[in-house]
Design a protein that fits this description.
mainly beta; Jelly Rolls; six-stranded antiparallel sheet
Length: 140
């Protein structure tokens, strides 16, 4: 059994910062759970464009108010505590944080933690990071 606490992750390489967000990676591929689990904070007044072309992601809001813009169908969805969204179609999207948002995120397949923070929002697969193109993947 694994037991971890957010305080143990803060300040380590599992706390990753970008311009508009910081993310605490509670569980990664190393833990061999088949998914990764993240506690992500998006800063007030920011918009973050993302596209996880190689991963499925579910995101559950536990703090803050914002709006999710689906760039594939143009729809906009209010985000508040208790809202979950699932990117089941690798949807391109923008998350607008009206106030600071705190989101619990799950990725399948799990992130390894070595992904480059590409501002296009796409993370490569583990194979791509090792320099091998995965058959069938689309390059952005
Ligand atoms: C809100 C969201 O999609 N967060 C994803 C996780 C975060 N970008 C990370 O840990 O890299």
């Amino acid at each position: 059994m694994l037991v971890k606490r957010l305080q143990e992750i803060e300040g380590t390489d599992r706390e990753v910062e970008a311009k508009t967000w910081k993310s605490r990676r509670l569980l990664l591929a190393d833990e061999k759970m088949g998914f990764s689990l993240h506690d992500t904070v998006l800063y007030a007044g920011t918009s973050t464009r993302m596209w996880y072309r190689n991963h499925l992601e579910a995101v559950y809001c536990i703090e803050g108010e914002g709006e999710l813009e689906n760039l594939d169908d143009g729809k906009k969805h209010p985000i508040a505590p208790g809202t979950v969204y699932a990117l089941d179609a690798h949807d391109r999207h923008i998350l607008h944080a009206h106030s600071q948002l705190r989101m619990v995120c799950v990725f399948n397949p799990p992130l390894t933690g070595l992904e480059v923070h590409d501002e296009s929002g796409a993370y490569p697969t583990a194979d791509e990071m090792r320099g091998r193109e995965t058959a069938g993947s689309v390059t952005s």
